[in-house]
TrEMBL record:
It is an enzyme of class 1 (oxidoreductase). InterPro entries: 3-oxo-5-alpha-steroid_4-DH, 3-oxo-5_a-steroid_4-DH_C, SRD5A/TECR. Its main location: membrane. Its EC number is 1.3.1.22. It is a multi-pass membrane protein. This is Steroid 5-alpha-reductase DET2. It catalyses: a 3-oxo-5alpha-steroid + NADP(+) = a 3-oxo-Delta(4)-steroid + NADPH + H(+).
Length: 265
């Protein structure tokens, strides 16, 4: 219906700063893709290397890096003209659902005792999350218009399906990896198996990409689309790097698997 189809339309998109920020975010995404795809995998996890600054304990690193998605998102959201409306509120809660897990639950489940992440990666992740959270929050509570009927529109429902499916799949896939290690000090790598792992090396990344595609569809916004593209630009090359790493590490690694997307790539 007409009201629902108005969702995501701009209210005052003429405020130049927000448009410029979105443009800068897309430009940053292109730059990041070129670097991580053609030059260097982000130096953490199995791709960690010396020379990227002092090490921050992995658990603390994840909490610091992801925390802006909780506090910047909440602060900016509440400055928006539509912050008390129903649909923006639901979008905020969905975003928080993902980031409460990523920031406050996932780091405590990692088997990462004694492992460190270079401070430059932590800083880059932190700044990315500040920037991205500002874009998402500002859109959903200030520039986007989301009348209540948007919740029952086919577009919102499709987006929500992808978002929840991606969220659940991402947690499942991370769980498989976390359970490959016997205890918190175990640093070994094994071949993950079962369900989506029979098709791709990195179903956790695949599901994360699907989740933010769902967000882009649900929010019907350039901001949401920018987040989806940035996730793909970051995790696509990383999935390729993981995939190649598995081939080198394990001579019996299943040849039929793709890197990120079943049957495709
Ligand atoms: P990885 O798949 O590299 O690792 C996830 C965890 O599992 C790590 O603790 C890792 O240990 C461990 N692990 C991975 N593979 C194996 C294996 N074969 N055997 C034993 N243990 C293994 O994911 P990331 O650390 O890059 O990302 C973690 C989560 O964050 C993912 O869900 C990802 O989707 C999300 N993320 C989202 C981003 C976005 O742009 N939205 C960006 C980056 C991550 P170790 O660290 O020691 O390798």
């Amino acid at each position: 219906n007409a009201e629902a189809s108005a969702a995501g339309a701009a209210v005052g998109f003429d405020e130049g700063w927000y448009g410029a920020a979105l443009g800068a975010f897309f430009a940053m995404t292109v730059l990041m893709f070129v670097i991580v795809n053609f030059f260097i995998s982000a130096p953490y996890g199995r791709h960690v290397r010396r020379g990227w600054g002092f090490g921050v304990a992995v658990r603390e690193a994840w909490i610091i890096m992801e925390s802006p998605a909780l506090f910047v998102m909440a602060l900016v959201y509440h400055t928006g003209q539509f912050h008390s409306l129903h649909v923006p509120h639901i979008l905020l809660r969905l975003h928080q659902m993902h980031y409460i897990h990523r920031t406050l639950i996932f780091p405590f489940r990692m088997r990462a005792d004694g492992k460190a992440m270079p401070v430059s990666v932590v800083a880059a992740g932190f700044l990315f999350n500040v920037f991205n959270s500002y874009l998402q929050a500002r859109w959903i509570s200030h520039y986007g218009t989301y009348p209540t009927p948007w919740l029952s529109s086919p577009q919102f429902l499709l987006g929500a399906l992808l978002f929840f499916g991606g969220f659940a799949g991402n947690i499942w896939a991370d769980n498989v990896l976390l359970n490959l290690r016997s205890d918190k000090e175990d640093r070994s790598y094994k071949i993950p198996r079962g369900f989506l792992y029979e098709y791709v090396s990195c179903p956790n990344y695949f599901c994360e990409v699907v989740e933010w595609l769902g967000w882009a569809i649900m929010t019907n916004s350039l901001a949401g689309f920018a987040f989806f593209v940035a996730t793909l630009a970051n995790l696509g090359p990383r999935a390729k790097a993981h995939h190649q790493w598995y081939y080198k590490k394990f001579s019996d690694y299943p040849r039929s698997r793709k890197a990120l997307t079943p049957f495709i790539y």
